[in-house]
Write a structure and sequence with these properties.
It is globular and about 70 Å long. It is 1% helix and 37% strand. The longest helix has 4 residues, at 4-7. It contains one helix and 36 strands. It starts with a helix and ends with a strand. By secondary structure, it is mainly β. The strands form eight sheets. It has an eight-stranded mixed β-sheet with strand order 30-31-32-33-5-36-35-34, with no helix packed on it. The model is unreliable at 1-141 (pLDDT under 50).
């Protein structure tokens, strides 16, 4: 029933987040969902970073860290919020706008407030000189500003293809979500704190909420078989406890996006519902405007972006509406979508709302909103003379973009690494910042922003030298050094990295969450 309208275009996830790499593949559900295999397939671990470590997937569309970060930066991203760390962004600090502050009590406390990862994206190379998770002291001759404090141990029997789905945090823990479950690590020494495995009756974790709420409650979705991810669970990050699991809707969900407010856990996919944070009981379920409508919804913090496609209605065939997460009621005037395959794809940022809309090859565009949910000008992701921008949403643990104010910053082109800045009001490129022409040079966008709203990046200086941690000027992209980062051997190269970086809220620590844990371990901390 109308499936042909969407069948010709099956978007693929762009891959954080540091706000990222969609959850395990899900079965197709209606014309909005992917075909042949379902969901957005996870990239082959052997190929994910074949070209410069960016993990660009085949272009064709895009699919709202999750990720932890101190509740603070002007941006949040994804995939991850350090509830206490991510209260907003430890993970995707803005969209990657995670805003949660990490405030560990290091045996040798850093000067100033405790760390609070605020970044999520980019990558990091392996940590040379570590010893299976024990605290590692920097080499005596290391002259870097940031040196390895510890490297969290890899879990036993690690699956090399088991990728990062989300990042959260509290004032004590850095929390990683992957297909095997939810694992917390002490911020002070990197040692495992608690582990929540996949419960009996479920096969794997499908997706994770981008952030946790003010009470350090986050959410995950479980695959109970046949790629049905409609079973949702609430996680208490303070206690390391699975509070409840329920089937969110009678509909089968292949790849739901999740958001947690202080009142509800919101589930968005081909069905939309709000569940009580306290009990898991259904608080509301969104009803389509006609029985013959299919929906695609993306959780966006305290809101949900929903596009539909209706077949037997006298009104517009397709609409986009923003819905309040706590009440389930519309929070905007519906926007008519005219393209035959036009739909919401992902949430780039939730405050203010910035969406990625898919509309066929070369037709994808970014749609920003003001604080009253009035849409601004569309910005094409296809820049003349360049490849389409690969954008990540808040539902991906790894991010390639950060929004600060009215500027979108995007990590681009693995063959000629750069960070581009775009004006969301005009859609025009403002500047491009490259790492330079030296051999082995590379640049990676860090999730989130600093307290002044500036973005940060890690810049490689070659495999045999430390990398630079810098801020980029909003005006022209010029770089200001924060310091240098090195492994225990005094070197640090990001050219083949598979990590998401976060900078603590006080700027004294850097955290790297690895997409895969088979070789380097799940998490590394550098400290001044």
């Amino acid at each position: 029933m109308g499936g042909v309208d969407y069948g010709a275009y099956a978007p693929t996830a762009p891959g954080i987040p540091a706000q990222a790499p969609p959850p395990p593949a899900g079965a197709p559900i209606g014309p909005y969902d992917p075909v042949n295999g379902g969901g957005y397939p996870a990239p082959d671990a052997a190929q994910g970073y074949a070209t410069g470590g960016y993990d660009y997937q085949q272009q064709g569309g895009y699919t709202y860290p999750g990720a932890p970060v101190p509740v603070a930066p002007k941006q949040r991203n994804p995939v991850m919020l350090w509830g206490g760390i991510i209260g907003g962004v430890l993970a995707i600090a803005i969209v990657i706008g995670l805003v949660v502050l990490l405030k560990p009590n290091d045996p040798k406390p850093d000067p100033g407030p405790g760390p609070g990862p605020v970044a999520n994206s980019g990558g990091s190379s392996s940590v040379a000189g570590t010893d299976g998770g024990n605290s590692v002291s920097p080499a005596p001759d290391s002259k870097a500003t940031f040196n390895v404090a510890w490297n969290a141990p890899s879990p036993a029997n690690t699956d090399a293809t088991n990728q990062l789905l989300g990042i959260w945090g509290t004032d004590k823990y850095a929390v990683r979500v992957d297909g095997d479950g939810v694992k917390a690590y002490n911020l002070t020494d990197g040692k495992p704190a608690w582990n929540i495995p996949v419960p009996s009756g479920s096969k794997e974790v499908c997706s994770a909420s981008y952030t946790s709420n003010s009470k350090n409650i986050a959410a995950v979705a479980f695959n109970t078989g046949d790629y049905d991810c409609s079973t949702v669970g609430a996680i208490d990050l303070t206690q390391g406890k699975l509070l409840w699991t329920v089937k969110a809707t009678a509909d089968r969900l292949s790849q739901p996006t999740l958001s947690v407010t202080d009142n509800v856990v919101v589930v968005g996919g081909n069905a939309v519902a709000g569940l009580s944070v306290a009990t898991g009981q259904q608080a509301w379920q969104y009803q389509p405007r006609d029985k013959d409508c299919t929906m695609r919804a993306r959780a966006a913090g305290n809101q949900i972006a929903i596009s539909d496609r209706c077949y037997m209605t006298s009104g517009p065939k397709s609409q986009l509406v923003i819905v309040n997460a706590d009440s389930g009621k519309p929070a905007s005037t519906p926007i008519t979508l005219t393209g035959t395959i036009e739909q919401v794809d992902s949430v780039i940022q939730d405050k203010p709302l910035v969406l990625l809309i898919t509309n066929g090859p070369n037709g994808d565009y970014i749609l920003p909103f003001d604080k009253d949910n009035k849409p601004g000008n569309q910005m094409s992701v296809k820049e003349p003379g360049s490849d389409s921008l690969r954008l990540s949403g808040q539902d991906t643990a790894f991010t390639r973009n950060v929004v600060s104010g009215s500027t979108l910053y995007v990590q681009v082109n693995p063959t000629k690494p750069a960070i581009n800045a775009y004006d969301l009001n005009t859609g025009k490129r403002l500047w491009a910042a490259s790492p330079g022409d030296s051999s082995g040079s590379d640049i990676r966008l860090v999730t989130g922003t600093d307290k002044d709203g500036k973005i940060r990046a890690v810049v490689s200086q070659g495999y045999d030298k430390p990398s630079r941690l810098v801020t980029l000027s909003p005006t022209d992209g010029s770089m200001t050094d924060i310091g240098t980062m090195a492994n225990a051997n005094g070197k640090f190269d990001i050219s083949a990295s598979t990590s998401v970086y976060f900078v603590s809220d006080d700027g004294n620590a850097v955290y790297a969450f690895r997409r895969y844990t088979s070789s380097d371990g799940p998490l590394t901390k550098w400290r001044k």
